[in-house]
Specification:
single chain, binds S-adenosylmethionine
Amino acid sequence: MSYDPKSLKAEDFINHEEILETLEYAEKNKHNRELIEEILEKARKTKRGVECAGLSHRDASVLLACDIPELTEKMYDLAREIKEAFYGNRIVMFAPLYLSNYCVNKCVYCPYHYQNKEIPRKKLTQEEVKNEVIALQDMGHKRLAIESGEDPVNNPIEYILECINTIYSIKHKNGAIRRVNVNIAATTVENYKKLHDAGIGTYILFQETYHKESYEKLHPAGPKHNYDYHTEAMDRAMEGGIDDVGLGVLFGLEMYRYEFAGLLMHAEHLEAVHGVGPHTISVPRIKRASDIDPSVFDNGISDDIFAKIIACIRIAVPYTGMIISTRESEECRAKVMGLGISQISGGSRTSVGGYAGYSPEERPHDTEQFDVSDQRSLDEVVRWLMEKGYIPSFCTACYREGRTGDRFMALCKVGQIQNCCHPNALMTLQEFLTDYASEETKRIGEELIAREILNVPDEKRRQRAIDYLSEIKNEGKRDFRF
Ligand code: SAM
């Protein structure tokens, strides 16, 4: 086996020896100021405009290993600069929707493992899916990530497809779920085709760990035990027609530098084989859950290392969205947001049936997947973002206009984001303010929109967006997009 990003075999494109050599190279050069400055320069935006070269897993690993405070500050500045160039101050909002916690796997970090008798097993009926979706629409959500355990009998692909269909069909008041992302276990090309035909947004699958030996120990039984099948899933998803795939590592399971190199190698592999890198990267950390004690895993990372990982990912893959969930506290989310995060969840419940019938203060814990640190309502998160100078966005336009995969990347590269994403973010925020926000959130939001709409560079586009905003507010119209 030798390292080959173009190979379709997991052990070639996530090559263990290559990762070890990368870590050795990074360790050897972590105080090499000249090299580090050179790497940062390479990753910077070109003078002419908007393109960023990104970095190889080797170069990025040197940055991550470097512990010279003044250079770390430079990394943070560059990460902020890149984030600003491609994502501006927009943060896309979403919520998870747990469909079923039936699972035949034995993942040692996840409370859904089949031997856990502490949690009641539950699977939503279509009526319950409908109620959950109405509750989510009433909060103001437009984008969901559906989550499910792996169980071919209780949650077969037909069940997942039926749920997606139900979710898209519900139009309650002015609400609509316009994009359903899917986080379910690795599956076959035929099933990915079915998910694609059902109109999903991103297919998300966390690798958990790229370290094969650890992976096999952490997944001792069930179909998820098969490292190669799991690691090669994104290639099958793309073969099935899904353009947007989302990677992620569960930080805390293995050494973070190993995971970081593996994650970037996976991104390089997708780019080399399919001509397009991952649409998103998620950075979950292990949390306490029913029968799971996170301190048992001895690779937990501090908030500082976590921030550095996020900054280095932003520098290495400038066009890839980065997601942070409510696993993280308000304080931590505030710290890392500017370093490259482009999507966050808000008002999340990680239990099966956690939304409908509960007040914002009540949260059911019995079927919860893990403790949620940020327990604020969506309205509170939206207001907090705006007070920090961000634009919460409920936009789903790219995917609905067919701007997925490399077509989305192309939009980034030609610098059209500010004429497209910026007004779309403001128009969807206006919908949220008009339909769902509290008075205070509405006041802050409308001031923000009035200021930010002036930052659409193209005059005609700006004027059209101003007209659309007025139609949303005054004429009850919805769903404008560029
Ligand atoms: N069952 C699917 C699979 O096997 O990929 C995915 C759905 S699972 C609900 C989503 C993710 O939650 C997992 O991929 C894992 O990374 C994460 N997770 C599991 N246990 C966790 C814990 N204790 N704390 C934080 N995240 C956890």
